[in-house]
Design brief:
Order of helices and strands: HHHH
Structural class: mainly alpha
Oligomer: single chain
Length: 101
């Protein structure tokens, strides 16, 4: 789980940065915002999981929701960094689902 979170954080941060270099940055605003929120949610969950605290279900659910939203947003863009980010977000959402079951 922590590995999937770290991978998602890295892809979201890279994607947000790469989006800033795109010709039409205005078209990438929602992608950048979603990337940033997703990276923060995954980071928070990773930090909480590292403590061994057991009551994390709500945070895992939220992280899954944000990862799914980020994947959907990134899938709407043809850029390679967006497609790779979407894949990392889907994998993280799947890891969240597995954790909850």
């Amino acid at each position: 789980m922590i590995s999937a979170l770290g991978n998602c954080i890295n892809h979201c941060n890279y994607c947000a940065d790469a989006c800033l270099d795109e010709d039409n940055v205005k078209m990438m605003v929602n992608c950048i915002r979603t990337d940033k929120v997703c990276a923060e949610a995954c980071s928070a969950l990773s930090q909480v999981l590292a403590t061994g605290y057991s009551d994390v279900g709500g945070l895992v659910e939220y992280c899954k929701k944000v990862c799914e939203a980020c994947a959907k947003e990134c899938e709407g863009h043809d850029h390679q960094h967006c497609q790779e980010c979407a894949e990392a977000c889907r994998e993280c959402a799947d890891a969240c689902s597995a954790y909850l079951n």
